[in-house]
Each structure stands twice: as structure tokens, then as C-alpha cells.
Specification:
238 residues; alpha+beta; seven-stranded mixed sheet
Length: 238
Amino acid sequence: IHRTIPALATPGNHEMARGDDGGRRLSHHWRPTFAFPEQGPEGLAETCYAIDYQGARFVSLNSNEQVAEQTQWLADVLSDGSPTWKIVTFHHPIFSSAKGRDNQQLREAWQPLFDRLGVDLVLQGHDHTYARSPRLTFQPGSLEEVNMAVGRQRQQSDTGTVYVVSVSGPKMYDLEPQPVMSTWATRTQLYQVISVEPDRLSYRALNAIGDVHDAFRLERAADGSTSLINDVERPDTP
């Protein structure tokens, strides 16, 4: 499929193979399969990279390893130039949606940069559920503490980044609805269609037969500010 359809892949935990020394490293199948930029930190070629396409900057991060090295690189990449939209993808969610998970190290390393440098949308996987946030800005602490802070605010922020976790395959985990989620789904396979225009980013999440489960728009004003408009009221969790 990757010979016929353009793809920007980002590695997950199952792309990390166990070596003879017992450590985990990127599978030797990865780089022969893809041809991605090699401008990331040393040792992360074709897993940590950035591409500009039609006014949007797409950044892939490797959430399996070398988080600190990627943090400085990410700051440079997001500061360079002025794309209309900034979209980041990596595997392990900043706001975990499955029960008993929390990637606090990633959240504390990368979310302050997303806030400061204006990332619009973050796409993630790993938790085998669906969850989409309102616009969120960094809150320190564990996921439980973050949820308490967001719950106390009880209003949607007019700044920050939208975070999505999704699953398209049949393997599912138990969902844990939380205040950091605007909408969610469990035991439901979903895929996303995202349209990018100079002043609008439109997002839809659809199920396997094409029904829309979730949809929103990010609208860019003339002064550069962005507003989020929900196009689907929160549905009952299927």
C-alpha cells in the first residue's frame, strides 16, 4: 500500500524489536519500507521528521525513545517558518484514554512546546479507544491531577491544542472517560478525514460504515487567533 498511497508513518511500540542484548530498537524492516526525511536527531532517522505540505507542517515524533533529544529538535522545527497549521503525530498519548495509563513524561516534555509554538492538532494511538479533547493547555502533575484541574475549570479554553486518540483495528481496550475528553467511543473502529484550508481545518471521525461519530472545525481569524467549533454534539458512547 505504501508504494501507491502517500503515507506519513510514525513508529509505535510494536515497531520496536528486541535485540540480542535484550534492548529494544527500531525494527530493521522500518527504513526499507519508507522513505522519509532524515533531519531528526541522530539515531532517529525516518521516525522523527517534519514535512510541509499545502500550508501545513506535519511533524512525526518517536515516542518510544530519546524524548529529551527530540524536545530541542521539536522546538527548532516548530519555530522555523510560519505554516498556517501545525499537526504533530506520535504513538503514546499525552492524555491516555485507556484505563490505568499515563504518559506523564511525554506530557511534561512536549505539551509546553505545543502551547508556546502554536500546535493545532496532535494525533496519537496506542490506547485502542477513541477520545478527542477540547483545546487544552499544559497543567503539571499526573493525569488524575490534570483531570481535576480541567474539571474545575469547566469551560473550553480559547487557546491550546486539540488531542486525538483513535483506533482503526479490531483490538480494543477499556475506555476511561475523563474531563480532558470532549467526546469518546469504545469498542468502535474509527478513521479520520481531515481537510486543510488556509483559514479552516475540518476534522471528522467516521466508523467502519461511514457514519460520522465526531466532527469539529478550527477557524483561523484574520488576526491569527483560532477558534474551535464542534459540528457534532457529544453522542452517547457506542
